[in-house]
Amino acid sequence: MASLSSLSEELGEIEGQISDIFRALSNGFQKLEKIKDSNRQSRQLEEQTGKMRECKRLIKEFDREVKDLEYKSDADTTKMLSEKKQSMIKELNSYVALKKQYASNIENKRVDLFEGPGEGFAEENGFLASNMSNQQLMDQGNRMMDETDQVIERSKKVVHETVNVGTETAAALKAQTEQMSRIVNELDSIHFSIKKATQLVKELGRQVATDRCIMALLFLIVVGVVAIIIVKIVNPHNKDIRDIPGLAPPAPSRRLLAYPY
To answer: Which GO terms describe its molecular function (predicted)?
Structure first.
C-alpha cells in the first residue's frame, strides 16, 4: 500500500499530526488512571478533551483533502483513503467513550454536605434527659423537631437554588460550546479557502511566466525574420543569406536601354 505522502504532502502531514495526538491521548489516559485526586483528574480530562477537539478538526481537514483527490485517484486509492478515514474516526470515538466513562466516575464521587454529630453527643443527651421531667422532655423533643424541620427547609431551599444555578450554568455552557464549535468550523473553512487560494495564485503565476517566455520567443523569431527580410531587400545579391521559404526573391532591377532616335 502506497504511503499517503506519495499521494499528497498535505495528507501525509495531517496523518502524522493525528498519529501524534492519538499517542498523546493514550499516554494521557494511562496517566489519568494513576491520579486519585478529583480536581487533578478533572484538569487532566480537560486536556484530553482539547486534544480530541484538535483531532476532530484534523480529520475534517483530512476528509476535505481526500475529496479533492477523488477526481484523479483510482478506485483502490479512493477505497484505501476512505478506510483510513474510518479507522481514524473509530479510534477517536473510542477515546471519546473513554473520556465519558472517566467523567461519569468523577461525577459519581459525592462529597458529604452535612457532618454527623460529634463523639459523646448521644451520651451528653442521655445525661441531660435523666435530669428532666416528662413535660420538659416533650418540650425539648418538640423544639428539636422544629429546629430539624427548619434545617431541612433551609437545606431544601439551598438544594433548589443549587439545582437552578446548575441548570442555568449548564444551558450557558452548552450555548457557549455550540458557539465555539461553529467558530472552529468557520475557521477551518477559512483556513482551507486560504490554502486553496494560495495554490491557485501559484498556478496562475507559473502560467503567466510560461506565457511571457513564449511571447518573448515569438518576438525574437519575428525580429529575426524581419531583420532577414530587410537585409535581403537592402542587399539582394548577398549569397551568404539564404532565401526565406515562401518569400519570393526580389525582382532584379532592370536597366533602361537608351535607343538612338
So the answer is: SNAP receptor activity; SNARE binding
Label residues 5-42 b or e (16+ Cβ within 10 Å = b): eebbebbebbbebbeebbeebeebbeebeeeeeeeebe
Nearest to 12 by CA among 73, 55, 65, 87: 65
Question: Which residues in 180-201 are b (16+ Cβ under 10 Å) and which e?
Answer: eeeeeeeebeeeeeeeeeeeee
pLDDT digits (tens, 9 = 90+) for 184-222: 888 888 888 888 888 888 888 888 888 888 888 889 888
Cα 208 from Cα 200, distance rounded (Å): 12
As a whole number of angstroms, the distance between CA 65 and CA 8 comes to 9
Q: How far apart are CA 63 and CA 68, in angstroms?
A: 9
Q: Which residue has 511571447 as its cell numbers?
A: 215
Predicted structure pTM score: 0.41
- 120/98 Cα distance (integer angstroms): 46
Other Cβ atoms closer than 10 A to 78 = 14
CA distances from 173 to 166, 169, 202 (A): 10, 6, 43
CA angle, residues 31, 35, 36, in degrees to nearest 5: 160
Confidence bin at 1 (pLDDT 50/70/90): very low
207: which 3 cell numbers? 502560467
152, three cell numbers: 431541612
